[in-house]
């Protein structure tokens, strides 16, 4: 990979990225890509974040969904409408369609809906029925929906069946005044569907309002979030999107270990990880992009240090209430590859002391301590332990045990990694539950010795260009 191609790659990844959902004028979603963007390993451990959006007819559910999709532009999102799962009307029902209650739970094929949602949650593509509201029948072709990071299920009665509710990670109820909903329905049905106002009001009083009171409003109690005014409530939608971003940024292992922190991925981060894994990447480019990733990890790790409130006077004489950095701090690099993280630490922490530990990584599962050079007052400091690759965790355990023997408090250790293997995370988090681990990615593709990344080579060799310890 030449420097020009690297620059082009990152430039393209830095632009606007939209979800895999395109909304056409009819409001139906279309998948932009035929294949999911995640790898097989990632798909295996990352389940989609499922959001349910319920509320009365014309409450603004569609507007809320569209605004969430628009703001989640760096995630793949699909929208599934409950309206797609209406039963086909029989010939007899078609003759008296004005007497058919489309707002009743029995009007929907909930079993079909459940099957589609469960398959999406398992990472399988599904065919969503394409229901024609003019003929009241399904038409071909069905809409193919691929697994995505976020699935939004929208409909008036999606909270009614407990089996559907259990699939959701977040439940939103759009709560809009009944007069506003009626006014919107009149405007929609008369302008877009050509119905006369008398028919609209008759249907509303006969079916829509009773169904809302009997089936829809009672499900409001199941909502995690209630949004008044629907799409007009920008503050609520902003908070919802922030919460979704936070949840999506949590790796599944973070839900098991509260002391594990995986920095939230972006297309920039994925792009840089792609470059350092490419066997054709030059050493110069490897070091450049590895340094960028390491800097992000170091800065994220520093955010977990304790801070004290501090007041300062600005040049204009005003008082600014801020925070003061942790003063008693040092870095400890696990030789050799840990030294690759020192420049980023020095760039972030002026004049920081850095010690070193050398552990023999072969022959005894990385448990033989060869060399140490630590600050004499290390027991009084917060320690940033540096090692870009967390593999089996054996070397990390040896290094942490040494720090504990030197009097460092377990809660004062932050372990910084560029890439971590699940085995290493399990080993360290179980043995040292008060140590914080900060990494940029959990790597399921590490091979047998957990130090070699396919297509990348041993980190220290690529970084330092040497084999000796």
UniProtKB/TrEMBL annotation:
Span of domain Phosphoribulokinase/uridine kinase: 50-235
Superkingdom of this protein's organism: Eukaryota
Catalytic activity field: uridine + ATP = UMP + ADP + H(+); cytidine + ATP = CMP + ADP + H(+)
Pathway(s) it belongs to: Pyrimidine metabolism; CTP biosynthesis via salvage pathway; CTP from cytidine: step 1/3; Pyrimidine metabolism; UMP biosynthesis via salvage pathway; UMP from uridine: step 1/1
Pfam families linked to this entry: PRK (PF00485), UPRTase (PF14681)
Record-annotated Phosphoribosyltransferase domain positions: 265-466
EC number annotated for this UniProt entry: 2.7.1.48
The entry's keywords: ATP-binding, GTP-binding, Kinase, Multifunctional enzyme, Nucleotide-binding, Transferase
InterPro entries attached to this UniProt entry: P-loop_NTPase, PRK/URK, PRTase-like, PRTase_dom, Uridine_kinase-like
Enzyme class: transferase
UniProt-recorded Gene Ontology molecular function terms: ATP binding; GTP binding; uridine kinase activity
NCBIfam families: PRK00129.1, PRK05480.1, udk
Family note: In the C-terminal section; belongs to the UPRTase family.
Protein name (record): Uridine kinase
Taxonomy of the source species: Eukaryota, Viridiplantae, Streptophyta, Embryophyta, Tracheophyta
């Amino acid at each position: 990979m030449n420097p020009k191609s690297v620059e082009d790659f990152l430039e393209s990844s830095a632009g606007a990225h939209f979800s895999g959902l395109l909304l056409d004028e009819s409001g139906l979603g279309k998948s932009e890509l035929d294949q999911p963007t995640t790898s097989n390993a990632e798909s295996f451990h990352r389940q989609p974040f499922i959001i349910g959006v319920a509320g009365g007819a014309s409450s603004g559910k569609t507007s809320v969904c569209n605004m969430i999709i628009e703001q989640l532009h760096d995630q793949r999102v699909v929208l599934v409408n409950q309206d797609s799962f209406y039963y086909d009307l029989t010939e007899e029902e078609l003759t008296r369609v004005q007497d058919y209650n489309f707002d009743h739970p029995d009007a929907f094929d909930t079993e079909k809906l459940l099957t589609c949602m469960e398959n999406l949650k398992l990472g399988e593509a599904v065919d969503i029925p394409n229901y024609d509201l003019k003929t009241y029948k399904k038409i071909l072709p069905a809409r193919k929906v691929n697994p995505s990071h976020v699935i939004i299920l929208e409909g008036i009665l999606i909270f009614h069946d407990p089996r559907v509710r259990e699939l959701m990670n977040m439940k939103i109820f759009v709560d809009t005044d009944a007069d506003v909903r009626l006014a919107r329905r009149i405007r929609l049905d008369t302008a877009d569907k050509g119905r006369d106002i008398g028919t609209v009001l008759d249907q509303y009083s006969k079916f829509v309002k009773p169904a809302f009171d009997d089936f829809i409003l009672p499900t409001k109690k199941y909502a995690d979030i209630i949004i008044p005014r629907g799409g007009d409530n920008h503050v609520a939608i902003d908070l919802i999107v922030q919460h979704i971003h936070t949840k999506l940024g949590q790796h599944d292992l973070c839900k098991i270990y509260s002391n594990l922190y995986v920095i939230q991925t972006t297309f920039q981060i994925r792009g840089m990880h792609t470059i350092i894994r490419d066997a054709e990447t030059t050493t110069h480019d490897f070091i450049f992009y590895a340094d960028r990733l390491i800097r992000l990890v170091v800065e994220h790790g520093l955010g977990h240090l304790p801070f004290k409130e501090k007041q300062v006077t600005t040049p204009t004489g005003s008082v600014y209430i801020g925070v003061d950095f942790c003063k008693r701090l040092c870095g400890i690099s696990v030789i050799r590859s840990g030294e690759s993280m020192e420049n980023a630490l020095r760039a972030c922490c002026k004049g920081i002391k850095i010690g070193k530990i050398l552990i023999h990584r072969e022959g005894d599962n990385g448990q033989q301590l060869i060399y140490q050079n630590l600050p004499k007052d290390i027991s009084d400091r917060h320690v940033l332990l540096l090692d870009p690759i967390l593999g089996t965790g054996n070397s990390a355990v040896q290094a942490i045990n040494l720090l504990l023997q030197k009097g460092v408090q377990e809660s004062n250790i932050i372990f910084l990694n560029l890439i971590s293997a699940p085995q290493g995370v399990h080993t360290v988090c179980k043995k040292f539950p008060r140590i914080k681990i900060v990494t940029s990615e959990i790597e399921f593709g590490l091979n047998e010795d957990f130090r070699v990344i396919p297509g990348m080579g041993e980190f220290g060799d690529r970084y330092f260009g040497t084999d000796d310890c």
